[in-house]
Amino acid sequence: MSQEPGPADAQHDQDVDTTHAVPVPDPASTPEQEIAIEQRFVDRVYARVDVLRGEAEGNRDSGYAHLAATVPGARYERDVFVFQAARRIADLDSQHEGLVFGRLDFDDGKVRHVGRLGVRDEEYRTLLVDWRAPAAAPFYRATALDRQEVSRRRVIRSFGRTVEEISDDLLNEDAGERLPVIGDGALMAALGRKRTGRMRDIVATIQAEQDAAIRAPGRGATIITGGPGTGKTVVALHRAAFLLYQDRSRYEAAGILVVGPSAVFMKYIGRVLPSLGEETAALYSLGELYAGVEATRQDRPEVAAVKGGTVMLPILRRLVRQTPPGAPSELRIVYRGDVFKLDAAELAAARARVFEKEPRPNLAKTEAGRALLVALWRKIKPVIEEAEPAKFSRDVGSRGEFLTFLDHWWPDLDPADVLGWGGDVRRLASAAEGHMKKEAIEGVAASLRETDFSIPDVALLDELRILLGVKPQPRGRDRIRSWDGIQEVSTVQDRYYDRPERQARDAFYEDYAHVIVDEAQDLSPMQWRMLGRRGRGAGWTIVGDEAQSSWPRPRESADARRRAVPSGRLHEFHLTKNYRNSKEVFEYAADWAKPRLRNIDLPEAVRETGVAVVEKTVAADALLPEVAGAVVQALAAVEGTVGIIAPYGRHAELADIVHDGRVTLVGPLESKGLEWDAVIAVDLEAVAKAHGAGVAYVVLTRATQRLTRIDLA
Hints:
The protein is α/β, with parallel strands linked by helices. Helix content is 42%, strand content 17%.
């Protein structure tokens, strides 16, 4: 098979000549002639891919022909054969669009083409180099100052199998006499294209500083920082694809976890990895990292600040020790004709003794039964002197009424139920005594009485899961079955075509090989604790910008991050170019933010549009028609998407003006990581007051072309 799917082939790219012969360049060539040259090469690659796909289909069909196999070893071989063939077909299909996107012309006249995957010709010579292979690195890292023997870099943009556009960067001025140079540069062309509501991959336009971060070692912690629009998120996603390519057996087996701030954000980035041919990474928002919960509700900032803080740790520990609602307050046992009782105080004392020996309630039921028997024995012994403790324990401990009482007095506790206890102000006040003020108690209790969970609640649920005690589960392999002691791989239908959209690992999985955290500056200490459990032995990629933070106590969060991320080698990368915002938009945002934010990181915006930011101030009763008018103007001015970012209290009234599929209404916190061609920022001062200047700064940096700010008089 001629595809280059893994590290062995990456090494191959280092060891053999990855260039190939093409027509001698003519510096006088027209764009049409150059496109025709690239079209011939693209046709050749696709023809080869068609052959490879046909071979893979033949292999798959041959495997299906052995469905009647009954010997376990034959079944194993059949299923592996079919699975590998189907996987190869899927890889070829997923990378079909824009398969060839780059070309390098070297000083010695040789040419190397770069694409979404590697392809070799009939004689096993490299025809197309995978973008993640070492041989492709010069496509991203070569500059005029460090050319790496590259004379010209060409980006090829296709639709289907048809080359539509090429764009060249001449790195060696002396080569201009022999190489035609077409277009104005691929990066600027890509930045000017309309947004579609989904993040796109950037394999054709990765810049040198981004490429260095993408190719950093997988072990240890990689920190990627940079201001708005520097491509931190998309770099992190391409890094996941690179790690899978570099060491697929490790990262596919143990898994890569990608965590983002919101469900809106995860939907926005959801197609990037599949577009790169990778579908094995697990993508979760912070509101989804507890199995069975998909939280989207945002708490009021003051409530979120309490729930996310380490102050919740002693409160939760006290909460799990409270007597469950509805638990019986008296135990009555008849023994040898006498009635013996344990009252509420004695039961409370017995409960306390249980927690001295086993602090996790769901693992302490046996200890709870023993504590009740000990308390009863202390009452029985003085009355019935001849009673024997062992016989007493066997007799009473096996009675139905005793076991029923034990089940009600010491039930198995669910984290959601225990967190719900906090909705009772008296219970929460008892647990929070000495740790939380009255106003905070009332605010948190009110939030916990809501019918759904908020995003900060998810970290509390996960903490309670650990505090209550997780019962050991046998670790099986869902995709491996055993027949007469021989393990057999499941069928390709099970492993590939029937695979759910998400990775089979549920939200509690804790053995990831790598964890990628985006918008890390916003994580609360409790959220860092939750993530730390899932990456105890993992490598980490942490992406963020402190200036955009919504968390009010950065030192507390930084300390929690240090505890969550295993100590090891640290790789730090700082991105300096803003590729999202026009210069006009970013300079406006920077001027607003500089006096309000300390140590702000201001990247350089790389393009101008000539469109100034529009500012308007209106009366409250004129807000709705003004925003509606701004939306109409934006839709007429841009081909792509329009975002309305407004305080949460304004969403009900503004929802009535969202009729076009290109328009999205989001809150300030959900806007993180997203971008639109045009943005209408509503009541920015209210956003800053509620969530901090960092979040308002985020709002001002979401537009790629046009920004309109509408404030209240």
